[in-house]
Amino acid sequence: MNTLLKTRKMLRHDWSAGLRQSMGIYALTVIYILSVCAVFDHQFSEWEQMPGVAGRPPAVWDYLAFLFEGMEPYDFKMQNGFRLPAIWMMTFLLFLLSVAKYPRSDMYGIGQQLLLKSKSRTAWWLSKTVWTILAAIVYYTVCFAVLLLYLAFTHGVSWQPSDITLTVLPGFGELSLLEQVLWLVAVPVVTLCTLGLFELVFGILYSAVVGVIAAVSALLAALYFNLGALPGGTCILLRSCLGISGGFSLGACLTIAAATSVLYAAVGCLLFYKLDLYGNHEV
Fold this sequence. Notes:
About 70% of the residues lie in helices and about 0% in strands. It is mainly alpha-helical and about 280 residues long.
């Protein structure tokens, strides 16, 4: 049985078992996105009262930009206090929690039996890698679906960004529809994949808690040391070319996120293949 066939069989198990373990976090994500929508609406109502602001209702892109805008480059010499973009951070943290527990628990559960049966550590790791990528897509889809439903019952679904987004992210108004989709769908999804695979390496090697701590530490480092190559650093819109001159371009964000995703997956596969994580040589 070749590696790809073994991977496909393991993935069937991972897909159903992993999804069941993540349902609680997905339910929490629904509540979270609704809360973020309420916060944005409050800010939007205050924005509308300012003179010279057009009365265009908020659109899908406005809420997504609000989720992933992050914060401006942090200058330790100029800043007097600790700042944290709570919404940006929480959006990624919920995803980390949704994928934290399953890979490690499966490693000592049914997954161990599948590993013994297949005798392929590579297939086992590839299955977990693909599952993490699918989990990122599912998580983003949940966020997007809740947002669409919220708009359908409140302002109506619109794709024309309002003045608040065009002010915060001036470059957004110059984008085509395809570029808008790439910035607010593709970049976040690929960044989630990068973050999830980074967490997966530490989660499998050590524990789920260590995986979350490592990923959160990487997010904080990306924020405060302006390290775009770290997980999460490619999806800080206020530091992209949309928000500042000389910021990351769309191509750079997608390339860096995709390349680091492949790197983490490859490093994890090598370590899982070489290290005796089970304390014996039977697996």
